[in-house]
Amino acid sequence: xxxxxxxxxxxxxxxxxxxxxxxxxxxxxxxxxxxxxxxxxxxxxxxxxxxxxxxxxxxxxxxxxxxxxxxxxxxxxxxxxxxxxxxxxxxxxxxxxxxxxxxxxxxxxxxxxxxxxxxxxxxxxxxxxxxxxxxxxxxxxxxxxxxxxxxxxxxxxxxxxxxxxxxxxxxxxxxxxxxxxxxxxxxxxxxxxxxxxxxxxxxxxxxxxxxxxxxxxxxxxxxxxxxxxxxxxxxxxxxxxxxxxxxxxxxxxxxxxxxxxxxxxxxxxxxxxxxxxxxxxxxxxxxxxxxxxxxxxxxxxxxxxxxxxxxxxxxxxxxxxxxxxxxxxxxxxxxxxxxxxxxxxxxxxxxxxxxxxxxxxxxxxxxxxxxxxxxxxxxxxxxxxxxxxxxxxxxxxxxxxxxxxxxxxxxxxxxxxxxxxxxxxxxxxxxxxxxxxxxxxxxxxxxxxxxxxxxxxxxxxxxxxxxxxxxxxxxxxxxxxxxxxxxxxxxxxxxxxxxxxxxxxxxxxxxxxxxxxxxxxxxxxxxxxxxxxxxxxxxxxxxxxxxxxxxxxxxxxxxxxxxxxxxxxxxxxxxxxxxxxxxxxxxxxxxxxxxxxxxxxxxxxxxxxxxxxxxxxxxxxxxxxxxxxxxxxxxxxxxxxxxxxxxxxxxxxxxxxxxxxxxxxxxxxxxxxxxxxxxxxxxxxxxxxxxxxxxxxxxxxxxxxxxxxxxxxxxxxxxxxxxxxxxxxxxxxxxxxxxxxxxxxxxxxxxxxxxxxxxxxxx
Length: 763
Ligand code: BGC
Prior knowledge:
Layout: H1 3-11, H2 15-19, H3 23-28, H4 40-44, H5 53-64, H6 67-73, E1 85-86, E2 99-102, H7 122-126, H8 131-147, E3 152-154, H9 177-191, E4 214-220, E5 233-235, H10 238-245, H11 247-254, E6 259-262, E7 266-267, E8 270-271, H12 276-286, E9 292-295, H13 306-309, H14 325-328, H15 333-341, H16 347-363, H17 381-394, E10 396-400, E11 420-424, H18 452-459, E12 463-467, H19 475-478, E13 482-488, H20 515-530, E14 535-541, E15 557-560, H21 568-576, E16 607-609, H22 615-622, E17 639-646, E18 650-651, E19 656-665, E20 671-680, E21 695-706, E22 711-719, E23 725-727, E24 732-734, E25 739-745, E26 756-762
Helix pairs in contact: 5-16, 6-15, 6-16, 8-9, 8-17, 9-11, 17-21, 18-21
The structure holds beta-D-glucopyranose.
Beta-D-glucopyranose (BGC) is lined by residues 102, 154, 218, 296-297, 438.
């Protein structure tokens, strides 16, 4: 199917002929259209009522469709070749089917000849706190989507990382709703950019005559456990759901996300795919979502209750090729047609769902532009540069020498003082870019992937040796001056093979590094006892926080690399040797012990209660000191914070607070600093069992490239309406009129000497 074919369908035997209109008049001459666009279907789909040409065009198609054709729009895909998900095309009317493709660490498409750019996982990208960079990554992914001819990128994942053992923690942006929402929105805005409009801020934009890629935010909602994801019932009270598990999805809707994917799990009893409170009441009615909701693949839905609950498309799993979606669908397709025939489902709901889908197809240019096929353009140098930049900025330096004082620093390494570096660990010199589930993007061209060993070897002018296993064979690293231990989890794959340690469908069993890595650390520590000059640097590759208490005091450095994508080794070497000054700040709290976290229940229990508190909010509330606070990360320089200023000491409930702070580089090298603003609720009068958090993140900014001695003023704004809590008895969001505390500093650590405090009043 190519563009010409679609146009000929539209202009010839297709819709236009059917309506006696030319293809052009379908989209432009709305005055002559014999339809009232303000009909209830348009309203139900939250679409604009006032003569919107795209709505009109979608409505024309809807009116021309039989019931069976509408149900076909709601069912798909028909087949799944080579990890692609294709919805059937409606040949009669020339309406193409949606072509889906997974994300979110790049475009998942690959075959044996081509691959795509593999970015660091979202946990690493969130640790950059760089929204502009995330937007560029979204945009670069959209370009690759067009090169491989797909419409809908199944990303971003914005599920709350309420516990770092969650197998897909790596795919999401961390533990804080605000950071999750902002990063997700940046990705969406990038991925959904309009390629037909030149970007005035980007001198290199090409104005392409093509379709717009759609992002799909997933998984709505409370999808936070892998092992039992297919059936677990997440039990959340109203405040927890609305204040902790949903706000980042709302942010995605505000960013204009086209598609939302309903999760596998149940939420307060019902499966997400027929959860009326989540999909219909909140997402569609309250937030005004005008996109469409798809099910996760083969997620449990229901023929009778999914349409009123607001599920627009069923995505069944089909590994073979089916002649029609009516054979691959489980609960829509033929079952839905039969239920309609028996009067069990209201036809208005079918109209609404089909209109949402058709509108997305019109609005994003699917009817006028057939997907192209230029896969050799994937992995452009620009895209690889973005992968490298996000690896550099997302790695978090957690420990550097015995104390947090520059004179004791061990990193960066001085090449002149080192003769031999040993790089140790199962994944020291092999590809491990994260799990091999649905987010398994692949590079294919092995030369382009830089492993930790390759990165260090290429950068270091002395001798570098890589060892897969050393425990029990410590002579191997005995002669080294520096040992870099790569501690990494074995990626899980969808086959759920027993070797998988973390990933989709596989929660981590503990927060400890795998035993083989602990053995290597112990071996290096034993050698250091004989040779105190030996430097031990641990590089952790994990999707979520790890615990380090048992060995951290005996090693010299700890760098959290997450899974940093195809350029991981290059970025790692640049940081180790000081070509890049680390600026990443962790998007998750690192606890001292798993006992400090809420219970993670991935046993076969049906009901799992989710708490209002996790991460730094829990640590604050319980007065527990974390190993490394949320938002924490070291630099090779130091920063001093001063002159916290609040533009207006009193703000209205619907107003905006403006705060500025001076950040001075007081150390020896240029560095970038992520400045964080938290608001405190000590004066709250909410006295239910949760009360209000000690503080929550409400704004942040990256101060880029501050030279030694230089001061930069950082200005941040807070939308006061974001300070609201969900008042259960009033069934409404409510901003408390009171004095609020303000905390501005380098992390969530209230005891950090750089944490400045202030206050403001909301009246
Ligand atoms: C995952 C989704 C993914 C889908 C299609 C599911 O198992 O949960 O995130 O988009 O498969 O691959």
